[in-house]
Write a structure and sequence with these properties.
Elements: H1 2-20, E1 32-37, E2 43-47, H2 59-72, E3 81-83, H3 86-89, E4 103-105, H4 106-116, H5 119-130, H6 133-147, H7 169-182, E5 194-197, E6 200-203, E7 215-223, E8 227-236, E9 239-248, H8 251-265
Antiparallel strand pairs: 1-2, 1-9, 3-4, 5-6, 7-8, 8-9
């Protein structure tokens, strides 16, 4: 009887504790998002922004970052010819397609990565700059740490599927901000909707460019494991946002979410130029409670991570200064 009483008491305590603990909202497998005021670095909205995600072709943002850095250091020029190896040629689409032994000028390679998201070109550039794609991937990861991307690991230059290649929405926002801050003279590549290669006009994948006022870049990405990803830069009326949406069901739904975020958070963005202190915590949780202005077309419901709501003195994303 004494033993039964003890068991009953322990069981009762355990049940009581279980009932008193609110269940934690489970993070979705793919979705993540963040909206950052690019003038002062405030986080205006975030959901699962530090949860691990597959970057897909957002990876090429870092490939391009290291390409611009190599140009700045004088190691390559726009006129440098990049050999396309058999390994690069064999990559699956999206790709330009090369014959054995062909080369591509770096200027065209940059446009192919930024606009077409060409996997064969990304691998060729990675091999040229890093000695091998594996070596280049290590350089990419090292640069990510230097920039403050604390949760990103790169395994290839293209973003093609690799179970160990991971990032977060927060880290992709850091990279998007760093590209504009460190290489403003090259940022126009991310605004292009098409480019010409060997007499053919090749269109890009970012349908927000030229269609949504103020959108001036930056990169889309998709593999089956990631869903539809995008990093978007928006500038209008002196206000600037960087928006990351990952794990969209379709490109159209992902773009609709970005458009709704622009409508909702652009009025909350401050004016002015890019701040040197890039990512400071948002002061209060007012953004998510603000009423959503009615868009021109019916909007999508905004996913909200209630377990990571922005709160005073408790920043959901530990944003550090981009070095």
């Amino acid at each position: 009887m004494a033993l039964l009483a003890v068991v009953t008491l322990v069981t009762g305590c355990a049940t009581s504790e279980t009932l008193n603990v609110a269940p934690q909202a489970a993070a979705p497998d793919k979705f993540a998002a963040i909206v950052v005021d690019a003038s002062n670095g405030r986080t205006l909205y975030q959901a699962y922004s530090t949860a691990p995600r597959y970057p897909a072709s957002l990876t090429k943002m870092m490939t391009l970052y290291l390409t611009f850095e190599a140009m700045q250091q004088g190691r390559v020029a726009k006129t440098t010819f990049i050999p396309v190896s058999e390994n690069a040629r064999s990559q699956p689409p999206s790709k330009l397609g090369f014959k054995r032994g062909e080369q591509i000028e770096l200027e065209a390679a940059i446009r192919a990565m930024a606009t077409k998201s060409a996997n064969d070109v990304a691998v060729a550039v990675g091999e040229y700059l890093g000695g091998s794609e594996e070596g280049f991937a290590r350089q990419m990861t090292a640069k990510a740490r230097q920039l403050g991307m604390t949760s990103t690991v790169f395994r290839n230059a293209s973003g093609l599927p690799d179970a160990q290649q991971r990032t977060t929405a927060r880290d992709m926002a850091v990279l998007g901000m760093a590209l504009r801050k460190h290489f403003p003279q090259h940022y126009y590549y991310f605004s292009a909707t098409d480019f010409n290669f060997r007499g053919k006009r090749i269109r890009g994948h970012n349908d927000l460019l030229g269609r949504v006022n103020g959108v001036d870049g930056i990169k889309t990405g998709y593999i089956r494991a990631s869903g539809f990803n995008i990093v978007t830069s928006v500038q209008a009326d002196g206000r600037k946002l960087v928006i990351v949406v990952m794990g969209g069901d379709t490109a159209r739904k992902r773009n609709a979410q970005v458009e709704e975020m622009i409508v909702r958070y652009m009025p909350q963005a401050a004016g002015g130029s890019l701040a040197s202190q890039m990512f400071t915590p948002a002061p209060a949780a007012t953004a998510l409670a603000a009423p959503l202005p009615a868009p021109a077309t019916p909007g999508m419901p905004m996913p909200v991570d209630n377990s990571a709501t922005i709160q005073q003195g408790d920043a959901p994303v530990p944003m550090g200064e981009i070095q």
